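Appendix B. Chain record.
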Amino acid sequence: MKRLVSLNNRIVACDRCPRLREHCAEVAATRRRAYLDWDYWGAPVPNFGDPRARLLIVGLAPGAHGANRTGRMFTGDRSGDWLFRALHVAGFANQATATDRDDGLELTDCLVTNACHCAPPGNRPAGDELESCREWFDETVDLLPVQVFLALGAIAWRAVVDLARRRDWYTGPIPKFSHQALVPLSEDRWLLGSYHPSQQNTFTGRLTEEMFDGVFSLARAKLSGS
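Structure tokens predicted for this chain:
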């Protein structure tokens, strides 16, 4: 627990990417009309979850008015509504809702991180910004007994593949990302893919609750050794 807290403190203090820091500060200062009474977090968003997690969920980046506002991964926006509902159904979360850092939400055997810890303009971090965050991803993995990496979207998928190749957990060609794609890594680890629960995917029906629940059922099965 202490090592995760220390890592999270260093993530929050990170100022390596001026473009991202300026954007987060601007969003925090201007705010959205619905959240004018909020004191936005406006800093890099730390990891959230169980320091003994075997399931590591990897997203893209904090939402400008979600995690960048609340200071917790996937908290305060529609993507988080989808994620934590599914985690609750699968038994990884004690409740289905996530509104703020003091809402009582706890995760069991699961931790949530992002390929990029700052909200980027247009929700698109640049390549060098993702590279700057790579250290945080590597250190996060070092702290956990990860058995299943769940990548939400193609960028998160590539972040896990690149880490697996650096560590010789995977030596084949880059596997294609798709929903429920499953790639065996070394030492009984698995890479699992899912469409990101963004409004672009959930509003259009590209990702349904049944599809999302199926991903977590598969993750649970792999953790159980099935």
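Further analysis of this model is presented in Appendix C.
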